[in-house]
Each structure stands twice: as C-alpha cells, then as structure tokens.
C-alpha cells in the first residue's frame, strides 16, 4: 500500500516509516525539520531509512495548506499515519502559537487531505497528557478528559475531537493513539532518558522534579511501533465498532507499558547502564506536569492481541548503548 507518514524525521515516525518500508509498502515521509531540538539528529534519523527504494522524503510544514492539499491530491495515499506534532509540555508554556500552528492547523490539513482523497484509515498520535488532572488510576480511554494542564495536552485532546467530527460527518475512519512516555534509541533529546544520561556522562546535576515523587509509564519504542503497525490494520467501521454509535468509525487506544515506574527507579536504571552515579538536584513540581501516568491497555490488547511488555532495564540499556555510539563517548 501507499502510506503518508508524517514526522518521518522524528523519533516514532522514523521507526514506523522504517517498519513499513521493510514490509514492502511505498512510504512518503514528511517532516519540516524544525529546530525545536537539534536538526542534525533528525537528519541522522533520515539517513537510517533513505536507502530504501520505496521511501521518499518530503520537506513540508503541516500548516502549509496549499502544498499539503497538493501533496494529497497528487500522491493519493491509501493510509495516513500522522505522527508529526509540536511536542513538549513545558515548551507549550513558552511558545503556545507553535502548538496552534502545528497541532491544530496542521491536523486540520491532514483531516482535509484524508477527507478529499479517499484515505482508507487515518491513525494519529495523541498523548497520555490528555488525562491531565485525572485522579483515577489506571487511565482509561473511557475516562472523561476535560481537564488538561498544559496547552500541549489541550491540542492533543482537540485532535481527538476534530477526528471524531470528521469520522462522524465524512465517514473517515480514524484511530487515535495515546502514547505513554516513549523512549529508546534515537529518542528525543528533550526527554528524561536523554537529558539524564547526558547530564550524568558530563558530570552535570540532574533536576529531579516533585522531589522524585513522580511515576511514568515508560514505553519502549519497539512496542510502540508494533502497536501502531497492528492498529493501522484494524480499520474502525460500523460493523466492528459498536461502542460509539454516533461515530462508529472512530476509536481511541492507550499504548503504554502498563507498569508505572518511580522516577528514582528510572534514574537507577540509567546509573546501572552507565556504571556511574547521578548528582541529583531535587526540585518542586513544574507547571503543566502531572505526578503519575498509568495506561489501561485492555482495549488495545483485545483489539490487536498485543500490549507493550519491554522491561525498563533492557530498554534503558539499549538507549544508553545508542547514546554512547551516537555521541562517540568513551565512557
């Protein structure tokens, strides 16, 4: 089949594009290569997959309505996996308009492209951040998520609402995936595994927020990719989805490891992989952050007979090995 994968130079999008290419599909990978973090890392990710003859890279901004519409009209994608977004909870406090342009306007161009070009299934990235101030644990897709605590989370919840509308009005099959703290080789440098590893290696203190009283449902990249690939083959329709009669071709799933880990345990895993102790700087809770994430993945497992299961120590050791190779550190 012919796929559009947005965010192809990003962490998750790059691995998903690689998997689809290996399976023999034609993949158009889109990214705007912005400088939210080092574009050299994004370019290095692209080099991982540029050798595939069935892969084509397109540099384009999602908010470019005219050229996005042209791309859809010319390429006639069968399926779209939309993983591009302006990411980061804390940065959304500093630069909110970047999130509106990419995550709201950009998502609208994706929906319009799918609507007008007979795309068979749109799978898109949501986030565990949508659960915001929710107290019930574990987080379930049946929970009401009306209390986001960051603009990033609000844009992701908006994406789900927009997708629901297009599924209902235009009969477009859509599936949203709420990712829970994805990590692994080639991961983002603004996330804890990279930040902590880099700081420990360079003898810098690490900031441990909420005095370490945080839990995250860390999910390894291989598990995320497996979930995305399996779920994009399960196209929601009126026959196989009786949950939401108002829009029976719309679904939302959590993808998380279903095992929250204390921040101190997470740091210990990095210390063990590096064989080096961290210098910890304990800090109060930051605006826009949440104390705990914990995914209920029963619906995902029922749908695709799979749930994430990679142990944190293994995943962190794989990340650290990549970090050393990428940075050519003699540790």
From TrEMBL:
This is NAD-dependent epimerase. Residues 4-235 form the NAD-dependent epimerase/dehydratase domain. Gene3D superfamilies: NAD(P)-binding Rossmann-like Domain, UDP-galactose 4-epimerase, domain 1. It holds the Pfam family Epimerase. It comes from Colwellia maritima. InterPro entries: Epimerase_deHydtase, NAD(P)-bd_dom_sf. PANTHER family: EPIMERASE-RELATED (PTHR43574). The lineage of its organism: Bacteria, Pseudomonadati, Pseudomonadota, Gammaproteobacteria, Alteromonadales. Keywords: NAD.
């Amino acid at each position: 089949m012919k796929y559009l994968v947005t965010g192809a130079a990003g962490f998750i999008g790059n691995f998903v594009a690689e998997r689809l290419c290996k399976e023999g599909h034609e993949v158009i990978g889109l990214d705007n290569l912005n400088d939210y973090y080092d574009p050299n890392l994004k370019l290095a990710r692209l080099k991982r997959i540029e050798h595939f003859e069935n892969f084509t890279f397109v540099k384009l901004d999602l908010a470019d309505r005219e050229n996005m519409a042209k791309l859809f009209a010319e390429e006639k994608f069968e399926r779209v996996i939309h993983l591009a977004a302006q990411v980061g909870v804390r940065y959304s406090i500093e630069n909110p308009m970047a999130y509106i342009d990419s995550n709201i306007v950009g998502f609208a161009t994706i929906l319009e492209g799918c609507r007008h070009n007979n795309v068979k299934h749109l799978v898109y990235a949501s986030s565990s951040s949508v659960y915001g101030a929710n107290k019930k644990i574990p987080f379930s897709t049946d929970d009401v998520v009306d209390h986001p605590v960051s603009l990033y989370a609000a844009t992701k919840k908006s994406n789900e609402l927009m997708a629901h509308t297009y599924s209902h009005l235009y009969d477009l099959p859509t599936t949203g995936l709420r990712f829970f703290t994805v990590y692994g080789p080639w991961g983002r440098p603004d996330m804890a595994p990279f930040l902590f590893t880099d700081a420990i290696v360079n003898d810098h203190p690490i900031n441990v927020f909420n005095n370490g009283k945080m839990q995250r449902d860390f999910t390894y990249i291989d598990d995320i990719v497996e979930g995305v690939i399996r779920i994009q083959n399960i196209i929601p329709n009126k026959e196989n989805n009786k949950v939401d009669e108002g829009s029976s071709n719309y679904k939302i799933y959590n993808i998380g490891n279903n095992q929250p880990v204390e921040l101190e345990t997470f740091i210990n895993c990095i210390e063990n992989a590096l064989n080096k102790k961290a210098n910890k700087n304990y800090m109060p809770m930051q605006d826009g952050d949440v104390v705990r994430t914990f995914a209920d993945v029963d619906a995902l497992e029922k749908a695709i007979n799979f749930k994430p299961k990679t142990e944190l120590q293994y995943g962190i050791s794989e990340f650290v090995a990549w970090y050393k190779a990428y940075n050519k550190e003699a540790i």
